[in-house]
Amino acid sequence: MLLNEQTDEHFGCNPFAQTGRSKLQNERASLNQQIIKEMRMRAGAENLLRATTNNKVREMVVLELSYVNSNLQLLMEHLEGLNSSVEVYQSVEETSSLPLIPLGLKETKEADFSVPFKDFILEHYSEDGSNYEDTIADLMDLRQDFILEHYSEDGSNYEDTIADLMDLRQACRTPSRSEAGIDLLSSYFSQLNFVENRFFPPSRQMGIFFTWYDSFTGVPVCQQNIALEKASILFNTGALYTQIATRCNRQNRSGLESAIDAFQKAAGTLNHLKETFTHTPSYDMSPAMLSVLTRMMLAQTQECVFDKIALPGIKNEYFCLCRMAQEAAKVCDVYSLVYQSMIQTPVKDHVPFFWSAMAQVKMNHYRALAHYFVATALLDHELCPNDDEDKQEKALSQLYDSMPDGMSSLKILKSKDDRKHLGKAHLRKAILDHEEALRIHNLCRHVKKLDILQEILQAGHKRSLNKYSEFNSENDFVDFIEAPQIIAKTEQKAEMAEPSSSKVKVTDFFQKLGPLALFSAKQRWTAPRGVHITLEEGDLGFTLKGDAPVQIQSLDPLSPAAIEGVKEGDYIVSIQDTDCKWLGVSEVMKMLKSGGDEGVDIQVISLMENTVSSMPNKSATYCGGLPKTYSMICLAMDDDKIGKTQKVTKKLAFLSWGNKNKQKTASTLSLPSAVAKTLPSKNRLSTAFSNTDSSLY
């Protein structure tokens, strides 16, 4: 197989390896299965509650619903705990840096491409399917007429190719935390673009169900739309970048630069996902949530920039302290934006409390550092005769939007008392901010587990207290002033970066089918027609044009070729049983004349008109009663219990989206028509979403 030529890294990590990260992912997968089980039970109980009029039965159902809802709440809290487990993702060398937040990978179920792809190759490329009859005998009775109509390729010839694609998808479930893992995901994403064009026609569904679990709620989304697969792979690419960033050793410059690069690429990937896939039904990939995640990655990038500048050590020097104060204020500002976006409805209902608490803690911590640096610059460095007065005045004036009442930057520099009063005001602010950070730290049980975070906050608080005690006097209350806000400024602004993996070049697994521009799912072809071509006085009776495959033109209607059945505009796909879909005019012409007077056997195909209108891909989804969520679940479908060759009746198995209203602010979920006919309209299952920023679907 093609994948056997690649290194072991391209098969992903060993799924059975008992690393901390693999244990978390396995636990996440187990939680997802428990959540779907409880949601099915809840949906069944709610249906029974609506259908029954027996009071005793209703009481029992209500009691059962309370148990199910309680179990669901516990499972959701457990899943939130997994999203709060950041320790296993940190670098093992990390001993004195604030923990960073990575994203967990989305979980998926296995998808079997073999039967649908083989059928489609037989159908759409019209080759002899006799070698495949034993393998898909139970399906041929349903699809034989359709198969013989369309594509003329032997599906069994592509078994290894399809297996390569499925192996690649399986490896993407456990990518390594390295550039090799990124390349693996990117390779599969690029292959999906080829697969979509080759096998997913706009006129019908392929019968392949892609199931992905919401990384925040654990609710699965099951669709036949390959866009869900592509979006989920893109999300996992961004998530893997965050895990690579948190793994970097931030105790050296190269590690910090690697972390900055990875976080910026994560932000770029997530932003690209938001702008490209705008109708994803999974809430973790909704525009509102992706905006929050992008901001969080940029904030962590800015934090790493601060660490890189501070890595050589912060000198107790006036200009250095002013510079570091503005760098710290910049980190504070970006975390403030992250926190404000996390507490907005409906994002706040799905973002782990640990995340918002960490954003708030870091916001206060870096604000405290900014005030401490300014205080130190004012209290420890008096203006001396040899100092550059204008330069110091300019540096101080650039720290504030406006100076405190009755003060000017030059007056503060020259007055020892003014420097002391303003410096102590900044220290008081630093102490209060660190106290607030410690208070929030103690409110969240997951944050409290981070001992290194508590140590850093306590050290900063103690440092500010000690500094304040050095300049404390009994008459402080007389000349109390409020410390002005510090202007944020940075020498390296965090920006979204295009992932280098987006430029990964891959070879189409199914290039043997022919050039993609012509041999795609959108084009319909006749079955190959065998024709014997002979030369008449050295002339074929037609000319050739195009690159690959070549097309017949200027056909003489009285030539032997026309009499044998060749038509104007036909494409030559085979000569003497040799595939020539990728051959040019000169090569094909040479092969046609190689038979001499005896002639050659060729196969030609004709392009058919596409008379079938495009059919929109519908999502097979159900809300399960979760408030304000796009993650839906199909209760009637259990992929684990369906064999590879078992027939699936889509009509009865899946719920489908209703039509959106003109404002696109509500989505209605309706039961399958076979069931809906037996129910009163008022009892049909429906869910309406509020008109919020995150419901712009």
From TrEMBL:
Keywords: Coiled coil. It comes from the Eukaryota. Pfam families: BRO1 (PF03097), HR1 (PF02185), PDZ (PF00595). Residues 14-88 form the REM-1 domain. Residues 536-598 form the PDZ domain. CDD domains: PDZ_rhophilin-like (cd06712). GO terms for biological process: negative regulation of stress fiber assembly; signal transduction. PANTHER family: RHOPHILIN, RHOPHILIN-2-RELATED. Belongs to the RHPN family. This is Rhophilin-2. It comes from Acipenser ruthenus.
